[in-house]
Amino acid sequence: MLERYVKKILQARVYDAARETPLSEARFLSKRLKNSIWIKREDLQPVFSFKVRGAYNCMAQLSEEQKACGVITASAGNHAQGLALSARQMGVKATIVMPRITPDIKVQAVKARGAKVVLKGDAFNEALEYALQLVEEKGYTYIPPYDHPDVIAGQGTLAMEVLRQHAGPLHAIFVPVGGGGLIAGVAAYVKYLRPEVKVIGVEPEDAACLKAALEKDRRVVLEQVGLFAEGVAVAQIGKEPFKICREYVDDVITVNTDEICAAVKDIFEDTRAVSEPSGAVSLAGLKKYVEQTGIEDEHLVCINSGANTNFDRLQHIAERTELGEKREAILAVTIPEQPGSFKQFCRVVGKRMVTEFCYRYADTEHAQIYVGVSVKPGGEDRLELVQALQSAGYPVIDLTDNELAKLHIRHLGGGRSPNAGDEAVYRFEFPERPGALMNFLRHLGQDWNISLFHYRNHGSAYGRVLVALQIPEGESGNINEYFDRIGYRYWAESDNPAYQLFLG
């Protein structure tokens, strides 16, 4: 199998549309991690993503009759742009079906390259279903985003460049994983020529379809997929990629949102490139691998797979970066309700910088504060801070890893309402597009009074809402069944300490 794929990679036609991208040394990061870190710069492709490689090679294998029918695909962005550019290069008509939640920057980029865009559904699967329907109705030729040997071979040319650009010792290559086309191509080429080099996949914790498949030794469908890194938000690994991955991928690492955001910053500081979250996933995994194994003086490569992100999303990424680097602690602290309390609190904090402070008067004896404090990376300084506060007599709860606290509480003024009895609190995600918030409210219905509501646009594919509903006694059993019918992802948060301390 490897020999067959290596031949296809060597014969792949990609450079009419794609370019050979540099392998940039990350000097700042290398010094910090005590290893030689290299970043493969696929953000420098004409479509700012590696996807053009597979799309062009797949199209290049089509017959003239297939091209004459026109091509179509379903994509949330990067594959769509790659196919649009490839079709324009070859003079072929292209139709791209995209979910309505697709960031506008990607929709406009596809249109600018001459493809027809059809917005359909709130998720990729709905867009895919419609694209395949158009194949049946109009005879278009479908170009899959990852599950095809010619797509895999096109993506594999990236590995061919890496081994040529870095001919010396190489410990591991870290690859972002969505549907699996890229890591399959990389693994096939690397393991045939340099079997001693590790190929390590990296996935978001909430979209780890390859990890789940390897654990079960078969492809599985994830029940839910997080969409922060939408470029790798895939519920099931591709059939053809999995044949390669199950044999030749050495390991899979999962990373969280904060770690991805920190990696976006790392890439920027070393290259001045602004990576999209899915583009920074591989570096987040590389950093975690170094931390877990303690390796030093090795050569490590990660792939910045793309740079297509909305500008207004950067604010949310910046907010989460310090947490991802473990340079900020988010704490709930109880202090005396009396003059000078905050000053005394700061004395215990010492020379650490207070990054955030939220407070609202609650009673005459105690004040509950939400506070962010800069700490040294690694977690030890954070633990020392908590212990110092506890030793000084302050009750403390560490909220650094609490999603409700990071997404909502830090943006709310705080306080409790004496009239908000029988409150049940839920956190929702819903497809983000014009009118989506009003549509969410319509779905929420009018059976229960809303006693708290917080929504903030993060410039991402999904909106996030915190809602408290006043549910009369005896009706609470119906609420989860009702929310399940709506179909939005949700979490019950009434027992979350962040809510109970600041809003409950």
List the helices and strands and how they pair.
Layout: H1 2-11, E1 23-25, H2 27-33, E2 36-41, H3 51-60, H4 64-68, E3 71-74, H5 78-90, E4 94-98, H6 104-112, E5 116-119, H7 124-138, E6 141-142, H8 149-165, E7 172-176, H9 181-193, E8 198-204, H10 209-216, H11 239-248, E9 251-255, H12 257-271, H13 277-293, E10 299-304, H14 314-324, E11 328-336, H15 341-349, E12 354-359, E13 366-374, H16 380-391, E14 396-398, H17 403-407, E15 423-431, H18 436-444, E16 449-456, E17 462-470, H19 476-486, E18 489-492, H20 497-502
Parallel strand pairs: 2-10, 3-4, 3-6, 4-5, 7-8, 7-10, 8-9
Antiparallel strand pairs: 1-2, 11-13, 11-14, 12-13, 15-17, 15-18, 16-17
Helix pairs in contact: 1-8, 1-9, 3-5, 3-8, 5-6, 8-9, 9-11, 12-13, 12-14
Gross morphology:
globular
CATH architecture of the largest domain: 3-Layer(aba) Sandwich
Mean pLDDT across all amino acids: 87
Strand portion, in percent?
A: 15-25%
Question: How many discrete structural domains?
Answer: 4
Q: Give helix % range.
A: 40-55%
| Whole-angstrom Rg | 25 Å
In total, how many beta strands?
A: 18
* Content-based structural category: alpha/beta
CATH class of the largest domain: Alpha Beta
What name does CATH use for the topology of the largest domain? Answer: Rossmann fold
Ends: how far apart? 59 Å
The parts where pLDDT drops under 50 for at least 5 residues are: none
> Reading side by side through the largest sheet, how are the strands ordered?
1-2-10-7-8-9
GO biological process, one term: L-serine catabolic process
GO molecular function: L-serine ammonia-lyase activity; threonine deaminase activity
Family: Belongs to the serine/threonine dehydratase family.
Enzyme class: lyase
